[in-house]
Amino acid sequence: MGAERAEVYGSRENYGLVLCRHCNEIIDTLPTNGVKKLYSLCDSERCRSLQAVPSDIGEEPA
Ligand SMILES: [Zn+2]
């Protein structure tokens, strides 16, 4: 009994990656249908300082 195994490892090819746009660090993974790549920002001070450059077209909500 208790022979059930987690199916997590059976679907490793179908997940989304959240990468840092500056250093490509894998920040997180998401259970999605198909492989997806999302870009975000990691906790590195280096990346955060890069992100702080006020030069992009503003896309802030309000
Ligand atoms: Zn980073």
TrEMBL record:
InterPro entries from the UniProt entry: SR1P (IPR025236)
Protein name per Swiss-Prot or TrEMBL: GapA-binding peptide SR1P
Pfam families: SR1P
